[in-house]
């Protein structure tokens, strides 16, 4: 009987495998290679455009990515990796690459004053010029069929010089135009400001050449109404240095500081990006004026994260145990009310607390003033500001722990509590001997992740205190309530001139600190549970 069924099954499978392909399947097979070829050509074109933009290493990276993708999804040899490739590629692009790129910036002087490459800075300085104001010539633009003619007006309203017909296309390179003397040639009415704006890019590429007898020389575009001669501020030298024409001083590239610098130490801005090695990292240790605030901020970051986890866990677990009491009336109402801080978006709660803690108009100070006659300066006093941060963060974090503990309490066998009751144990003994040990073990990994989250809790600091009050007399502005991530943000984007290199070095340090502390915590908890 079973053999007959198996034979029928094999026969049905064989018949099914011999079914002719549907029209859709035939169309997909026919379009497979044309679409693959088109995708390859598009990928190669993208790589070429990246390389043409001067980003050679980015082009190499894109080419490697596309080559791996086509190898995996087109060749039969890469079939086993088709399901792994998206995950591996995503991990490399969104995790490994940002980390490596950030670490690389930490070894440079990259900042708002050193944004460009050396070549770009050289080109910027060589492009600096000044117009000879007494020789500036107003101009008008006139249509000439499908082309245009440019007329220089000179000192009166009559054209003095006109150009041959110009196409005015944005060619991306300088175009030399020989001007001709105006001899009552008929010209169309001058174009208005709107048309001049439309042709502005093409006009900027024009170099108007006048006869030597005019005394004007070569004219360049100066604005929507003017052409005129210019004088360059800098001259390039064969050895890569630049000469300032106004006084003849020579500025050479200093590849240690990232600036063009003269022999007497004068530097020119902007600077260029250079590799400075471990300078940003040694600054955290060797620079006393930087080390003091940095170590204080690091210590406060660890204390803030640890106290938040401990207090939120204690309160959340206590409330979960109380709500698990069967004889408690209105448990659903209490559970709903205690869950509300987690239901409200965090940034809204933070802004509400910012108003409640206001020294002059906040409700908290109004209550304290009515009861005890005090109005604490929550935002001005460092200790009170840190206390306020802990209060708000614990308020935001305890509902999450409470929900987790409520679920874990359901998994504890009731027999343990019955045996404990027979032995005469009280509620505190049950909590410390049964409930806490059985809940804390499965909760431990989540507490580690909560510690890592609070270690980088940027939103709370930015919205509530913005890191203030500040330390006094520091090289780089730093706040007493800053944690490392908000301090890094301030260095990179706010008060200290956007020092991206130093911020990247601190970010890399934060990554390794969080990773190391997480591994240590996991090892200790694993040992405790074993």
From TrEMBL:
List where the protein spans the membrane: 29-50, 56-74, 81-101, 297-325, 337-357, 388-409, 443-464, 500-522
Name of the protein in its database record: Maltose/maltodextrin transport system permease protein
State what this protein does: Part of the ABC transporter complex MalEFGK involved in maltose/maltodextrin import. Probably responsible for the translocation of the substrate across the membrane.
What are the residue boundaries of the ABC transmembrane type-1 domain, all occurrences included?
298-521
What are the entry keywords? Answer: Cell inner membrane, Cell membrane, Membrane, Sugar transport, Transmembrane, Transmembrane helix, Transport
Query: What topology does the record note for this protein and the membrane?
Result: Multi-pass membrane protein
Q: Tell me the first and last residues of the signal peptide.
A: none
Upper taxonomic classification of the species? Answer: Bacteria, Pseudomonadati, Pseudomonadota, Betaproteobacteria, Burkholderiales
Q: Which family does it belong to?
A: Belongs to the binding-protein-dependent transport system permease family. MalFG subfamily.
InterPro entries with a match to the protein in the record? MalF_N, MalF_P2, MalF_P2_sf, MetI-like, MetI-like_sf
């Amino acid at each position: 009987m079973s053999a007959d069924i198996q034979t029928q099954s094999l026969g049905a499978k064989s018949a099914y495998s011999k079914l002719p392909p549907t029209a859709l399947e035939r169309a997909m097979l026919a379009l497979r290679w044309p679409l693959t070829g088109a995708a390859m050509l598009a990928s190669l074109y993208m790589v070429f455009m990246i390389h043409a933009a001067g980003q050679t290493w980015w082009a190499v990276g894109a080419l490697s990515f596309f080559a791996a993708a086509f190898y995996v999804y087109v060749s039969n040899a890469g079939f086993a990796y088709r399901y792994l490739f998206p995950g591996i590629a995503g991990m490399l692009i969104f995790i490994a690459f940002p980390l490596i790129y950030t670490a690389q910036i930490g070894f440079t002087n990259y900042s708002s004053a050193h944004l460009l490459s050396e070549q770009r800075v050289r080109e910027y300085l060589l492009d600096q010029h000044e117009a000879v104001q007494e020789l500036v010539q107003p101009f008008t633009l006139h249509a000439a069929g499908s082309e245009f003619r440019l007329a220089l007006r000179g000192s009166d309203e009559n054209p003095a010089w006109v150009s041959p017909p110009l196409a005015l296309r944005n060619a991306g390179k300088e175009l030399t135009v020989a001007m001709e003397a105006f001899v009552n040639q008929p010209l169309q009415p001058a174009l208005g400001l709107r048309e001049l704006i439309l042709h502005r890019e093409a006009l900027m590429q024009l170099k108007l050449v006048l006869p030597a007898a005019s005394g004007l020389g070569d004219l360049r575009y100066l604005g929507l109404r003017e052409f005129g001669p210019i004088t360059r501020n800098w001259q390039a030298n064969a050895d890569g240095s630049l000469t300032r024409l106004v006084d003849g001083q020579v500025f050479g590239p200093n590849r240690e500081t990232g600036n063009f610098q003269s022999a007497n130490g004068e530097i020119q801005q902007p600077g260029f990006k250079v590799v400075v090695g471990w300078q940003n990292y040694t600054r955290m240790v060797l620079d006393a004026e930087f080390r003091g605030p940095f170590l204080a901020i690091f210590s406060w970051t660890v204390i803030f994260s640890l106290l938040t986890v401990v207090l939120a866990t204690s309160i959340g677990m206590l409330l979960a145990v109380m709500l698990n009491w069967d004889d408690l009336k209105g448990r659903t109402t209490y559970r709903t009310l205690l869950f509300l801080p987690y239901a409200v978006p965090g940034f809204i709660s933070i802004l509400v607390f910012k108003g409640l803690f206001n020294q002059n108009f906040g409700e908290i100070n109004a209550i304290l003033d009515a009861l005890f006659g005090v109005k604490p300066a929550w935002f001005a006093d460092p200790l009170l500001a840190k206390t306020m941060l802990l209060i708000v963060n614990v308020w935001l974090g305890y509902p999450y722990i409470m929900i987790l503990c409520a679920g874990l309490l359901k998994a504890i066998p009731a027999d343990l509590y019955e045996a404990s009751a027979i032995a005469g144990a009280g509620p505190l003994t049950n909590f410390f001997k049964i409930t806490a040990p059985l809940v804390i073990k499965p909760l431990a990994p989540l507490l580690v992740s909560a510690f890592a989250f609070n270690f980088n809790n940027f939103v709370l600091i930015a919205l509530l205190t913005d890191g203030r009050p500040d330390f006094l007399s520091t090289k780089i502005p730093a706040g007493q309530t800053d944690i490392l991530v908000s301090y890094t943000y301030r260095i990179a984007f706010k008060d200290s001139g956007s020092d991206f290199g130093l911020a990247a070095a601190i970010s890399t340090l934060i990554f390794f600190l969080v990773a190391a502390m997480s591994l240590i915590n996991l090892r200790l908890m694993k040992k405790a549970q074993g």
